[in-house]
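Batch manifest, entry 17 of 40.
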Amino acid sequence: MMTELADAADLARRLVASDTAGTLSTLFSSRGSTYRPLGSMMVSLPGRHAGGISGGCLEEYVARIGERATRSTPAVMMQFSTHRDADDVVPVLGCGGTIEVLVERLAPQHVTFLEQFARAAQGDDGCLVACVVRHEGESLSVTRAWPRGRGAWQVASNPEVADMCAEAARDAKSIHKSIAPDADVLVQYLPPLTRLVIFGAGDDAQPLCEIAAKLGWHVSIGDRRARLATSARFPEAGALFAGDWPEIVDATTFSARTAVVLMTHDLDDDARVLSLLSGKPFAYLGALGPAHRRLWLLDQASAFPRGPNEIVCSALRGPIGLNLGDRSPAGIAVAIVADILAVLNRRVARPLHACDSLTNASGVMEVGV
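Output type: structure tokens
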């Protein structure tokens, strides 16, 4: 998400600066299964786009037809579904759902919005944006509001919009509702930056760093061995630390959406790091190795004067990763990232086809691909 937003903001900036016609498209509403989550955005001109609104089946069509449609009006709403009439040339969705895509003629205010959204994606607080679309005869008017107030984008005064913002923040997802016969609202939820902290810079940490970075996560690598914790070995890492473990832990940024992985392959090193994590916020904590190693690790970490507190001890997972059956470094990295994703998204990791009525254990609708 973070990389896509930055790319979209960059393309929008260049299109507006060069006075090139382009569009901002937003997945405004959906019913049934869809590939992209509600609120996904794309900046485009015919033949080129950044971001996305589908699995690839709509992007070029929306870029081409949307640019043509917004020559005479600032915004249009395009609808797509699984079924179509025999003579219809509009592409259909392969996921079985129905969506509406808001397409706007790209303007300087969109560049400002996208730049602010992209900056928020790199923060530890996350944010919400309310997009209100009003139908005024045959035309649409679009306004955006930052519920917490950011510059020219002010909080919406409508109590229904405020309630939607509270709901989106609570459920950690974007939502759409009609608040009047002529008005619809999309509240876009942007989660806080996901941080992955890897203690240990061995070879098996490299694919883990690479996969996490492709997901837009900020990756920190720490190791006592300076020869291993280098940008040449970890070009995708956002931060690299080498030195004594207390120095590394103190220099590392932790947040409520941080996943911590201990993979030094040394019991003493893992135990020392574990003893230093008390008081640090995190969402996931795991150590590489079998179950009995986790018990050894907890016992050894408790021997340090500043041992791990009960929160750290109870949170420690080991072994880590989903049981995917692949023991290669890349396969293990995939299993670890999948495990972290399930925890961060509050999901029980199960095949989608095994989920009753396409819902998870919490009753949340799964997204079909």
